[in-house]
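Good morning C.,

I know you're traveling, so I'll keep this short. The sequence:
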Amino acid sequence: MTSAPVIRFDNVSKTFERPDGRGSFVAVDKLSFEIAPGEIVAVLGKTGCGKSTMFNIVAGLIEPSSGKALVDGHDPFRDFDYFRGKIGIVFQGDRLMPWRSALDNVLLGLQILDTDDSQARETAMRWLARLGLSGHENDYPHALSGGMRQRVSIARAFAVDPNILLCDEPFSALDEMTARDLRAEFVRLVRQTHKTAVFITHQIGEAMEIGDRVLVFQRPARIAYEARLSPGMSEAERQAVQQQIMAVLAQEPASVA
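The tokens, ready to paste straight into the viewer:
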């Protein structure tokens, strides 16, 4: 790599105690990878493979049991305050506050960062417009479609101008046509704003539409296959990658975790 990685995992493991008190289980097992500035990495795997645990370590919500995780050169758990405004998160559900309008939901992160009121409002309005929501600024979540609510969620994440975007299956609850449009819009915005993004998914097609690189996890979270994608790949090359991913996923039984 020509510059320091934005995200770096070095032999990261995470062990949890079982809820019933009967021992422990390993969710992440000596996981190592790097993500370069401006890269979009799709992390693909079955339910229970450790994708969300990895995601939570990057977000600073949990601490590794061993190994080292660095984000922007800092420990995301121990230096949590450093990341205020530097990481934007888009969840599977839109996580909108029902008592706030679309505009007020986008304003939330800016208000937490103590942004000047007029500047915050201008920024929020601009991002709502970029996400195709002009005219819906004063609508409340109950009046918006699922796709529109997720657009508000994306606008909220971009509005604070984070360096890194973390997305946890943000389009999985949407119909495929809406999800496809939002995937294309998301990638376009990430490219335009030069962000680094980690996108969690369990859908092969979605991973290949979004990622510059696809990491396929098997449990406990470890990289079983990695593929770098490029716009210049032929359809035959993309199909070969897809078939390899399917073969890797077929090797692992589904988990109820």
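Safe travels,
E.
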